[in-house]
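From the shared-data thread, chain only:
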Amino acid sequence: MDNTAEPIRRRLTTKGDATREAIKQAAKRAIAIDGFASVKIADIMAQASRSPGAFYLYFKSKEVLLHELLEEFRLRLKEEVNRPLDDSEDPLDNLANRLGAFWKIYRDDWPIATAAFQMAMVDQQFARAWRNVRQQGIRGLSTLILMAQKQGYSPGLDTELAASALCSMLEYTCYNWTAKGGDFPDRFIDDATAIKVLTQLFMHAIGWQSLSNASYEGARQVVDV
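Structure, as tokens:
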């Protein structure tokens, strides 16, 4: 029986909801420090300033907790990054806005994404859940590339493969720039700088370097906000 992301059934109270949320936020902090494989329930509950035994009132295991956190991560991406396309919006502006949303979500929740990816290597349930996150991103970016192709950009490019490659680059780059073990552990990369670099890389990768100066300037103003 697949019980991933299924919390123990109980009547939630306002206090219970607050405790549940405190545990989830504590888990993010604990995983960021020790990694999911090494973190113990006692570590999570210490971060939440609650007794270890209270954990099991809300979650059956730390794996079930991670599934719930990953599903929240996926839904936030769906709402903020994979929002419906607006045909009137310039594709580069659209791309910059979506990359900005992804960066900020990953910046907040990189411990969850990293833990889920690592678990996907050894657990089939996590592999399926992580694939769902990936496929959602690939579909969204593929649709955006197709929209750009209709405006004359990137003719002949396989949108699905391009989206897969670019999503992989984006995911690892965001991890690498936010994790303590990344390339720049002593450097703070601000949102504007990160989004500008990512947008320029994506723009050139998909053949948008032929944009007019006016269009490029408009996109630059978007990423500098």
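The mean pLDDT is 84.
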